[in-house]
Amino acid sequence: MERAxxxxxxxxxxxxxxxxxxxxxxxxxxxxxxxxxxxxxxxYPHQWSWDSGFIAIGRRHLSPPRAxxxxxxxxxAQWGDGRIPHIVFNPEVPLDAYFxxxxxxxxxxxxxxxxxxxxxxxxxxGIVQPPIHALxxxxxxxxxxxxxxxxxxxxxxHPRLVAWQRYLTERRxxxxxxxxxIVHPWESGMDNSPSWDQPLAAVPPAAPGxxxxxxxxxxAPCDRPTDLDYRKYVRLxxxxxxxxxxxxxxxxxxxxxxxxxxxLLIASEHALAEIAMEIGEDPSDHLVRAETATTALRKRxxxxxxxxxxxxxxxxxxxxxxxxxxGLIPLIVPxxxxxxxxxxxxxxxxxxxxxxxxTTLVPSYALTGAAFDASRYWRGPAWFNVNWLxxxxxxxxxxxxxxxxxxxxxLRAATDSRFTExxxxxxxxxxxxxxxxxxxxxxxxxxxxxxxxxxxxTTTEHTEPRPHAAGGLRDHLHASPTAxx
Length: 485
Known about the structure:
It comes from Streptomyces harbinensis. Residues 455-485 are annotated as: Disordered. This protein is mainly alpha-helical. The protein is built from 17 helices and 10 strands. It has helices at residues 15-31, 49-59, 64-75, 102-105, 107-110, 133-143, 145-151, 153-171, 197-200, 227-242, 259-278, 284-301, 338-349, 384-396, 400-416, 437-453, 469-476; strands at 47-48, 87-88, 256-257, 302-303, 308-309, 311-313, 318-320, 382-383, 422-423, 430-431. The chain has a 3-stranded antiparallel beta sheet with strand order 3-6-7. Strands 8-9-10 form a 3-stranded antiparallel beta sheet. A two-stranded antiparallel sheet has the order 1-2. A hairpin with a 4-residue loop joins β4 (302-303) and β5 (308-309).
């Protein structure tokens, strides 16, 4: 593995940070399949789309070529219409290890119709997940620009990433207002969020006993979505599959504009502008698209009185007034007016989400919400990827002390919980799968910030870890022989 240059500013890391680094590296080593990283060996034994984006962001500090491979493996399963499927299936994993399995999605047959163009060489799902990928690719490049340029990483992935963004902005603008719509709750990444209860109400569930869930073998039923939730998820997926995954033909009984999904779309458009400049292309189109989508996000989803963004039910023609953490994630979007960024931070730290008072991590759903459940998946627990995005947003809009406190809390929670999937927002108790891929990867990313900035409250606005931060991080850890992903 090539050794990166040392950053210009170095700060000593504590024994706890060294322990966190070693533990996180072991998780990534154990979850590596040879070409990509599984979220967890038990519950999620395949490659997941936005998981791989977050995992690549962490891996860039350890092995930029492997981080590049993570994204390239995912992009190799891209469909002809540009979509990146939310699961790329490993053919060596038994069909009953995960549901819905490849024999449910039938991507290589049902997805081959005109306009969709599913690949023939690999089985995938037919739906998508949030578009973190261009942002991830840009951050991976910046970790080691020399190796990236030598391998031609950005010129290879740029056209695929552009096709992915165009799929979302053109084929998925189901409301006609310049925002991408999700057509299944799983596409949000926040599967059973209370934000989906209202739009799902009219969806008929699949018949009881028509499928067997595999997730309950790996987690407590009280932590997982309910059987009724799953029956509705299955019905939506079946209907989409039976229409050949054609967005122009499928009826889309569930169609929602999600603020987090669209915020990541905008952030990735800005990243594509950076990528375009790096490879000698004109960034103007990406910047115009980012600005247009940001305007649509504000006009369509912002609620001034609530101080956050709400999802919009395209079919009902009305906002979904549930306070999900998804409504805070637009804090990552560049150029928000001050009154919006200030309001988002006030909502995050106020009684609804309690950051810094009732909670040390932002819960996935408001503490004050009628549907709040501290242990059930996306209905209240705190997730590491959500908090990583919010920490980034806090730094962007000048809340450096709050960002530093959130970063420190994330590192404590990750190590105390053995890199669990998510935690109880009040107690920090581990929930879901242990040794979770993106928890480990984002822990490494936060530690890299500490190596270059110091784990203090003096972080400046718009700060990214410097290129080659991994070298400084590994130097501080004495190039631990046990941590070599």
